[in-house]
Amino acid sequence: MDSRRVKQILSSSADIDVTYNGVSVWIDELHQDEKMATVHLRGPLEERTIVEIGELKEE
């Protein structure tokens, strides 16, 4: 995924399915370098992880 698409997803009110390593996640924040993002798993656990946006996939 590229930074332009991450920004679109963050500004959208739609429920867009994004995965990281095959697991469904929410994107919380795009970092200033526009190469990393903070995400968390969908569901009750809200453990946040910083990942490379190139590893995010839109399903």
UniProtKB/TrEMBL annotation:
Q: Where in the cell is it found?
A: Spore core
Please state the span of the N-terminal signal peptide per the UniProt entry: none
Does Iron-sulfur appear among the keywords?
Answer: no
Q: Which gene does this sequence derive from?
A: sspH
Tell me what this protein is called. Answer: Small, acid-soluble spore protein H
Q: List the source organism.
A: Neobacillus piezotolerans
Membership in a protein family: Belongs to the SspH family.
What UniProt keywords are attached to this protein's entry? Sporulation
Q: What is its main location?
A: other
The protein's matches in InterPro entries, at most eight in alphabetical order, are given as: SASP_SspH
> A Pfam family this protein belongs to?
SspH
Question: Keyword Iron-sulfur: yes or no?
Answer: no
Induction and repression of expression:
Expressed only in the forespore compartment of sporulating cells.
Q: Superkingdom of the source?
A: Bacteria
According to the UniProt record, one GO cellular component term is: endospore-forming forespore
An example of a Gene Ontology BP annotation on this entry? asexual sporulation
